[in-house]
Every structure is written in structure tokens, then in C-alpha cells.
Amino acid sequence: MNRDSSRKQPGAGSRRRRGRSCGRSWGWRWRRNPLRRHSDVVEAWIVLAIWAVALLGGVLSGWAAAQTVDRTFAERRADTRSLSAVLTEDAAEGSPVTAGYDIGKTWVTVRWTAADGTVRTGRAKAVPTAAAGSHVQVWVNGREQLVSAPPGEAAATFETVAAGVLVWQLTVTAVYGGGWLVRRRLLGRRLAEWDDEWRRVGPQWRNFSGGKG
Description:
Blueprint: H1 12-25, H2 38-78, E1 81-87, E2 95-96, E3 106-113, E4 119-126, E5 135-140, E6 146-147, H3 153-208
Antiparallel strand pairs: 1-3, 1-5, 2-3, 3-4, 5-6
């Protein structure tokens, strides 16, 4: 057998030792040791609370936001109905739409019959080529007021999911930001404790090492 082949690969033992050392050092704030301070224990609980609130709070807040948006869309759909209204003027004589997805259409006066039998009028969007007397689809609410069309099923689902994800991200960011500030204060306090302790121990250490006291 080749003597070199029987040798252990250099660095393998050190890598294993480093791995075991890292495994032992993980979570050291939760174990009793002479180097652990009260601020270390507090920080450990703070980190645990941050993770718990970020995960659980983020999910709950995102779910609540999504439910609110979905309920709002459902109420809007329930309070809105579609009907056919009659143009009382040529659309070419109306004012152009200058914003939104309906640029190119015009605002015209339309007339429709309400649920109670009364005749109502209002302003709606129509293509410029529509003539007086033609019909256009409009949406009215429970008070017979013209409103925009409610979002479709796909659009409502997308907006509901987007709202939930956005609120979840904001919640997680806020929790982590607050936790980071608290940990910064704890770090400053820990450094101050180290300075105080070194002022007490430093002279003794210099005498022990042969330095001048």
C-alpha cells in the first residue's frame, strides 16, 4: 500500500473540528457559560420574539388585509348593477377622456330608468362615433348613481393577493427594523459593560503579565 495514500487529507480534521465548534457555538446565549451576560439572554429572547412576530404577525396581517380587500370587492359587486343607458347627444360633441384606460373615449350625457321607475341622467364614457339614441352599458350603485365597473374575478383575485403580500412585507420590515434598533442599543450597552469591566480587570492583568501597574 502506498504510504501517502494512507495519510489523512490535510485539513480534514480541522474542518471537522470547526464544524463541531460551530455547532456548539450556535445558540450559546441559551446555555449557561461564564461569558454569558444578562444582555445576551435578553438579546436571545428579542431575536426569538422578532422571528415569531415577523412570521406569525406578517402572515396574520397579510391574511387580514387580503380578507378586507376581498370583502370590499364583494360588497361593491353586490351593490352594483349593470344596465343599458341611452345617449342623449352625439358622443363627438362630448368632452374627451384625458386619463385612465379609456383615453380616446368621450364623456356624454346618458339616460336610464332606475329601479323605482324614475328616469335618471348622468355622464358616462362612450366611443366618439356613438350617436344620440344609441345604447351604452353603464353601472349604477344602490342609490342609482353612475359608478365605475367593478373589477372582474381575475382582477379582484390579483389585487387581493397583492394587498396581502404588500402588508406582509411591510409588517416583516417594520418588525425587523424595530428589532434591529433594540439590538443596537443592547450592543452599545454591552460595549459599555466591557469597558467598565476592563477598567477593573486591566490593571490586574498588566501586573500579572509583568507590566507596570
